[in-house]
Design a protein that fits this description.
Strand order of the largest sheet: 3-8-5-4
Structural class: alpha+beta
Number of strands: 8
Helix content: 55-70%
Number of domains: 4
Shape: flat
Radius of gyration: 44 Å
Mean pLDDT: 78
Order of helices and strands: HHHEHEHHHHHHHHHHHHEHEEEEE
Distance between the termini: 116 Å
Number of helices: 17
Low-confidence stretches: 503-509
Strand content: 5-15%
Length: about 500
């Protein structure tokens, strides 16, 4: 048997030409054209006829094509002895092209998150549950329904896997068009959010249906499907019908277990739907990070790793070790410190002979550097030290102010205390200190009240005051007068108690 090498043309220098020639024969077969002449291939590819003829001969030698003598245009003896061939695909060549097409499709497949497939699976599970509840279900309906369910589920799983793979490539910025990514990122995020929502709602329904079908008896339905497939076993086969039935039953059990594990979580094994939902949810912030990274690229920003790579390239390009040391000191700021001497004489010299800003540094006059400052650093001038400022008067004023504010606060606390529930409309007039404390207490009480509750009891942060506030239903409005204006709002019943003193003073309006 000849040693055909139908994939040998993929590793040769002219692989692109060979793939194009084989593609021509595949397209011709789709048009139900069996044979092609070299001129036909050359016309479709618009290539050189000699190159096409050489490619056809090589493909024939590898077993991808078969050559038959072309006698349809023979009119003379010379034409008969001239090599003329009709080429067609061999079974090996056709199988190789189908394998390559499948490979290209799987490699470039973007996939999809099929929310419609979830709805179809729910519909098929409902129908399967109805059959499971029958005493004697129709085996043909059960078989067709299970095949449709497995096919739809396989399509959903394969597309989801391909989509998440393509999404990860987009997130990693591998083989992605930056402008196209910016254009469709919003649509992609919306697409993910809609699928997550459908997966949460529909996935819960699928989980419930799978549990009900298990309770109704899925085993006998799987046995019906396996029995129906075993009936198609050809006579005279090596395996008996019983062996085919057992193999089919094991296969259907594995399919149903896969469907169950895809949607139903177990104790230590989360479902595939849950994992897919987590990956889709995590992909949204990852996409936003990609957008941020693209914006940083567009703005020309660089990260530390890029800086170090550039620095490594500079070191590699340095002509000698001395240049490396200079580069090291310049990059990391490890030069010795220098102190510039600027005194009256230096300033006068600059006024008399100014240096234009456009002067290059190597043409400018040198700057004087103090050797003493370079060795010892800066130091204070010698002479009489500064006098110590007496702050006694300022400290006394601050102490008096703090004592006065504490007394005003304590007086306001006593003024606001009540020994009975009091309406806010009965408060009357408050001075600024009292009103400030009152607003703080009222705000604490309103912040602690929960929706639907009319009364609240709370304490201040220091635990010295207790506030009891109750809303009224009569619709009255309370007004509290202050030197800065009138404060108004819905009337409440308030009671303020001093937890440090059991004898509170009465609130006088």
């Amino acid at each position: 048997m000849p040693d055909f090498q139908p994939f040998a043309h993929l590793t040769t220098p002219n692989a692109a030409l060979y793939r194009a020639v084989m593609g021509t024969f595949v397209r011709a077969k789709r048009r139900f054209v069996v044979h092609l002449r070299p001129e036909d291939v050359q016309e479709e590819l618009a290539a050189d006829l000699n190159a096409v003829s050489d490619a056809l001969d090589k493909l024939k030698g590898w077993g991808n094509l078969r050559a038959d003598p072309d006698t349809s245009r023979v009119t003379t003896v010379e034409d008969f002895h001239r090599a003329r061939f009709l080429f067609q695909l061999t079974p090996e060549g056709e199988a190789a092209e189908q394998a390559l097409a499948t490979f290209d499709e799987a490699l470039g497949r973007r996939g999809a998150l099929q929310a419609v497939a979830l709805t179809d699976i729910v519909t098929q599970l409902h129908a399967l549950l109805e059959l499971a509840r029958l005493r004697e279900p129709d085996a043909a309906k059960v078989h067709l329904l299970l095949r449709g369910l497995v096919g739809r589920f396989s399509d959903l799983a394969d597309n989801a896997q391909a989509f998440m793979g393509s999404l990860q490539r987009s997130i990693d910025l591998h083989d992605v068009d930056v402008d196209a990514f910016r254009a469709y990122k919003d649509q992609l995020i919306d697409y993910l959010e809609r699928f997550i929502k459908d997966l949460v709602t529909t996935g819960a329904e699928i989980t419930t249906l799978v549990g009900r079908i298990d309770e109704a008896g899925i085993e006998r339905l799987l046995a019906m499907a396996a029995t129906r497939e075993a009936e198609d076993t050809a006579p005279g086969a090596d395996d008996s019908r019983q062996a085919a039935f057992e193999r089919g039953l094991v296969l259907w059990r594995e399919r149903w277990l896969g469907l169950r594990q895809w949607f139903v979580s177990e104790a230590h094994h989360p479902s595939q739907a849950k994992l897919l939902r987590s990956r889709a949810r995590a992909a949204i912030p990852a996409l936003l990070q990609v957008v941020s990274a693209l914006n940083e690229r567009r703005a020309g920003r660089s990260d530390r790793s890029a800086d170090f790579r550039t620095l490594a390239r500079w070191f590699a390009q340095a002509p000698d070790e001395a240049a490396m040391h200079r580069l090291w000191r310049a990059v990391f700021g490890l030069s010795s410190s220098r102190h510039l001497t600027v005194d009256a004489g230096t300033l006068a010299e600059r006024d008399e002979h100014p240096v234009p800003p456009s002067t290059p540094w190597h043409e400018a006059p040198p700057l004087l550097i103090s050797p003493q400052l370079r060795k010892t650093g800066s130091f204070e001038r010698r002479g009489k030290p500064n006098r110590i400022v007496d702050r006694t008067e300022q400290r006394r004023l601050l102490t008096e102010r703090a004592a006065r504010q504490a007394a005003e606060t304590e007086l306001a606390r006593k003024r606001l205390l009540t020994h009975r529930p009091t309406r806010l409309s009965e408060v009357g007039t408050l001075d600024p200190a009292e009103f400030s404390l009152f607003l703080q207490l009222l705000g604490d009480a309103l912040a602690a009240r929960k929706p639907g509750r009319r009364s609240i009891v709370t304490t201040t942060s220091d635990g010295t005051l207790e506030i009891r506030l109750t809303a009224l239903d009569d619709g009255t409005t309370a007004e509290i007068r202050t030197p800065d204006g009138t404060f108004s709002g819905p009337d409440h019943v308030i009671e303020i108690l001093d937890l440090r003193n059991d004898e509170p003073e009465e609130w006088s309006a």
